[in-house]
Design brief:
alpha/beta; Aspartate Aminotransferase, domain 1; seven-stranded mixed β-sheet; three-stranded antiparallel β-sheet; 12 strands; binds pyridoxal-5'-phosphate
Length: 395
């Protein structure tokens, strides 16, 4: 009854959903408090107080026409506020005309891919990856080309990327801070990537975009720098959202921004504004655009995430689990103590710990922990992790 392809995807892409369903069944048997669910990247924290202040301001001072259709790119004032922040974070002058407000980072990625892809062109993604990339690329007739990152550090393997770039490559998607590994790419790596991509563009005589998917850019620890892609890559597009930094995933608000130095940037923006419209988004939600205009320098309490990272990282490494210490986002991606990560996730379930196998991110042999959960649940789970480690003879 539904399309064959979607039927196939429903079977393939359901790790997180499957875990969610199994979690619901376990909760029924053991009770809510005795199941430790680390599967979903849905922040348990509340938006900052400034969000409620802006919300009250809008509700108390409604303006005529504030719920009408608008320019497909979004409100000029909101785009200007975003552009100012992007200019502060880079050495380039970004204008409102380089920004389009979108329905989250997911919406922005779909708009960009729709704008640039011809049928059969390839998009390089770095594994482990956010699984939706595969579907988004397919939505627009592209072909995902996964390239593995370094298995010890999860940093991009530039030689492997170079080898994967072909006469069909249209773009590369990078994601830093990364879901699922939490690693942050340093400036030197992005600069080398920029040089590599321009060399390949010259060699192949075609434009190759680098798309930086960065919804976690506001969640970094120890004051680490998130370099602007605009300083490192010419044909750069930033896609992001306020799903994580302001804890507003349900509000579907994000944006895309093109580098002012992109080749034929005016044409790219014209195409992207049109695609925002024809994908049926039309424009990002009006009310929430107004709201985030004044929140561009706000963020949730990053200290809370860092504390959760430290509790889990210290406990799990103490129990013998091996992992990279993440510098951002809210995920840990340890090595699976069993060769088969799906078997390991099943073993963890016996201890009422719910995880996602690395297989679900194109990286078998690992597992993902999302620690954007209540601190209390994380603390309650610690003895279960110890039992699990003992059962697997790690301690
Ligand atoms: N990209 C990555 C790497 C993500 O982890 C997510 C959400 O979890 C998204 C994009 C989509 O974010 P949004 O809610 O802004 O669409």
């Amino acid at each position: 009854m539904i399309a064959d392809k979607i039927q196939k995807y429903l079977g393939k892409a359901s790790w997180i959903r499957k875990m969610f369903e199994e979690g619901a069944a376990l909760r029924k048997i053991h009770g809510e408090k005795n199941v430790y669910d680390f599967t979903l990247g849905n922040p348990a924290v509340e938006p900052p107080e400034a969000f409620h202040r802006e919300l009250r301001k809008i509700a108390e001072h409604p303006e005529a026409g504030m719920h009408r259709y608008m320019s497909n790119a979004g409100y000029e004032e909101t785009r200007r506020a975003v552009a100012e922040v992007l200019s502060e974070r880079s050495s380039k002058t970004v204008g409102a005309g380089h920004v389009i407000m979108t329905c989250g980072a997911g919406g922005a990625l779909n708009v960009v891919l729709k704008t640039i892809l011809n049928p059969g062109e390839e998009i390089i993604i770095l594994s482990p990856y956010f699984v939706e990339y595969n579907f988004y690329i397919d939505n627009h007739g592209g072909i995902p080309c996964p390239v593995a990152t370094d298995p010890e550090t999860f940093q991009p393997d530039l030689a492997a990327i170079e080898a994967a770039i072909s006469s069909k490559t249209r773009a590369l998607i990078i994601n830093s801070p990364n879901n699922p590994t939490g690693v942050v790419y340093p400036r030197a790596t992005l600069e080398k990537l920029g040089k590599l991509v321009s060399r390949k563009e010259q060699e192949l005589g075609r434009t190759i975009f680098v798309i930086s998917d960065e919804p976690y850019a506001g969640i970094v620890y120890d004051w680490l720098e998130i370099p602007s892609l605009f300083d490192c890559v010419r044909n750069a597009v930033i896609v992001t959202s306020h799903s994580k930094d302001l804890a507003l995933p349900g509000e579907r608000i994000g944006y895309l921004a093109a580098s002012p130095e992109m080749e034929d940037v005016g044409k790219f923006m014209e195409g992207a504004v049109f695609c925002n419209r024809i994908l049926g988004f039309v424009n990002a939600p009006a009310l929430i655009q107004r709201l985030v205009t004044g929140l561009q320098h706000e963020s949730v309490d990053i200290g809370e995430y860092q504390e959760k990272r430290d509790i889990l990282y210290n406990h799990l490494t103490g129990l013998g689990f091996r992992m990279v210490k993440p510098d951002g986002a809210f995920y840990l991606f340890p090595r699976s103590p069993l060769e088969d990560d799906v078997e390991f996730v099943k073993a963890a379930q016996q201890h009422r710990i719910l995880l996602v196998p690395g297989t679900g991110f194109g990286a078998p042999g690992y597992f993902r922990i999302a620690y954007c959960m209540e601190k209390e649940m994380i603390e309650r789970s610690l003895p279960a992790w110890e039992d699990l480690a003992r059962n697997l003879s790690l301690i």
